[in-house]
Amino acid sequence: MLGARLPRAPRLLAARTHLRCMSAAIGRIRYRSTCGGQLGFTFSEAVLQGLGTDRGLLVPERIPTFSLDKLESWRGASFEELAFEMMSLYLSPDDVPPPALRDIINRSYATFRDPRVTPVEPLVDGLHVLELYHGPTFAFKDVALQFLGNLFEHLLEQRGGATITVIGATSGDTGSSAIQGLRGKKGIECFIMYPEGRTSSIQEKQMITVLDPNIHNIALGGTFDDCQYVVKALFADEPFRTSHSLAAVNSINWARILAQTVYYVYAYLQVTSAPSGAAREYAPKVSFSVPTGNFGDILAGWYAKSMGLPVDQLIVATNENDILHRFWSQGDYSRSQVKQTLSPSMDIQISSNFERFLFHMGGDDPKSLAELMRGFESGNPLSPSDSLLAACRTQMVSQRVADGDVLQTIADVRAKTSDEYTLDPHSAVGVAAARQFLSEQPTPSSSPMVCLACAHWSKFSDAVGAAIGPECIATMALPEPLASLEKLETRVKLLPNSVGTVKDFITDTVASRRG
């Protein structure tokens, strides 16, 4: 079956030696802000700071690459082995010594229910599905946030028991994944904001039933974009940021993007065969359809492509909150009102990680990017130049999927698969977008199409029930521990959409905790 764990690649140990030599030859990767105010950061500094003091996002000053021979040497590697190889391209032993990095990776993915971590399975119509929901919270965010929690703890221990205050915004899944990654971690206070009434019931329960003393949930009156604005405002407040040693857990943190690049390469190796003979220099290509809200997941795919992964198409799959689709199809990146849809984690109008992509597409020019973002943040539409828009279109395409198509896709996939495979609504956006894209092509593609499955269906049982019928959903048992969430005690703070109020709550809470 596709995705089965393979034996250790025989060339892997030799490849590691080559990698260490190559890394020494090309030097350490440094990090900079997209807005130009900071540069020369080490990996550790970039991870702990999270967001630039100039409100820019931190990116590598150069993107390391791997050859096709290197890619082939990774065939047969486990997910954990591949993660070690790829992450080692972006950090040095001074940041995290290799034995410590291996330990962090192994502990992070030991929490997953499938030993393959992110397996690929065949779906329908020649499509494949990359299952990213086998972690503790049944969502793709676990892949990065289990790693980030353990990484934070290691970096703080290296600094003699330093402390940080983690602030995050979530449209649903980031919050519970971050909480599971950070609960009980020494030296870390974690504050998660989510839009009150705009997550699924299970998503909310996964957050507010965690009662560890270092976890603090805030239900904010407003939308996810409001939560995200508060996070950026707090990071931009230098005295507050410094006094609390703020750290980011959203995908604005570079370590999250890095962790997510791994499963693109892992998926590629699962759905392709090694080329041989004269065909060796022409590696097969793979396409990916990515349900997209905050742009972090598909950005990780773009970084993997830029590193050397043979990618045919990257499809930006949006729901009815289609600001990204409007950008690709019309050059229009302007805000509109956030709609509540069947895929709430994608109900976003401002995609934070899009800034990183625009920075690279604009030639890594911080001055131009800062001017572009200043205009957008002041409430105006983002105005890309013709050359910038053209550059973006060479790297990705987009599709918009309405709620009706989401329901139809869930029902159709379940009916067509012998095991009654059930998509969650976000994953259905990716599958529907892939079908739409392929139907528009003049000739069939020879590249495998991999659709990213973001979450387990049980997190969105109301939407799934609307697709397959209430009598059918009633026969489907929720997996544990989700089934027991309703019985658990909860703790959450309801706050208005106010930067000052959130700031005061964090200050008072940290003071009482650290006394």
Q: Approximately how much beta-strand content do the residues carry?
A: 5-15%
What is the CATH class name of the domain at 255-473? Alpha Beta
* Second-tier CATH architecture of the domain at 255-473: 3-Layer(aba) Sandwich
Low-confidence stretches: 1-26
Tally of separate helices: 21
Major β-sheet annotation: 6 strands, mixed
**For the terminal residues, how far apart are their CA atoms?**
55 Å
The CATH topology of the domain at 255-473 is Rossmann fold
In percent, how helical is the residue content?
A: 40-55%
Strand order of the main beta sheet, please?
3-4-12-9-10-11
Give the mean pLDDT.
92
The structural class is: alpha/beta
Record field, number of beta strands: 13
Essential attributes:
12% strand; five-stranded parallel sheet; 21 helices; six-stranded mixed sheet; alpha/beta; disordered N terminus; 45% helix; 515 residues; Rossmann fold
Structure explained in plain terms:
By secondary structure, the protein is an alpha/beta fold. The protein has a domain of 219 residues: Rossmann fold, CATH 3.40.50.1100. The protein has 21 helices and 13 strands. The strands form three sheets. A six-stranded mixed β-sheet has the order 3-4-12-9-10-11, sandwiched between helices. Helix 6 runs parallel beside helix 7. The chain starts with 11 loop residues before the first helix and ends with a helix. The N terminus is likely disordered.
